[in-house]
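Section 5.1 Outputs to date
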Amino acid sequence: MAPRGCFVTGTDTGAGKTVVAAAIAAALHARGERVAVWKPVVTGLDEPGDGGWPPDHELLARAAGRSDGDVTTATFGPAVSPHLAAEMAGAMLELDVLVRAARARGSGADVLVAEGVGGLLVPFGDFTVRELAIALGLPVVIAARPGLGTINHSLLTIEVARAAGLDVRAVVLTPWPGEPSVMQRSNRTTIARLGDIEVATLPATTPAAQDLARAGASLPFDRWITPA
């Protein structure tokens, strides 16, 4: 039986997956739940930080009140796809190893918030993020940008996920402005209509756990983390 939780993916790299996952985890943690967070691979650790934001595994750890080492299974320096990062390091990423790692993180927790890498078709080697999501059996939440291009990217991601039998619960547009434009509002309603999907919004936040929790509390994530 799949654990209670969700798998956060994105339309592509930089679409806000880690912020969405961290916001959900922080909001759950703030209300007293034992939250496990997990991201299979973190790349780009050789790159300078981005405006005060820590690496993904550190942000997720802060959000859930965990240590950095509890969050990810493999880390690499170059900012490249996981399959290339592993190849450059002389390593191999295996699906069963990652699945066991995720389940071990979730053991003993009330809820598991897992985050993918890039989009659903990003390769780890001979398998993709999508195969990992299928193996974990968690409901899927898609992070997407609110601006131009997001309709196509979001609908493609929904279609790729559903074609594989994944249970897609919602799209989260982020960072959602306080005064969205006509285009941004239209993007939200159009994705909801054409994708037959719930579309929520997450405002801009800081990396501080309390700010992530505050932002995450605005999301109806309880509908997304309950097993079908």
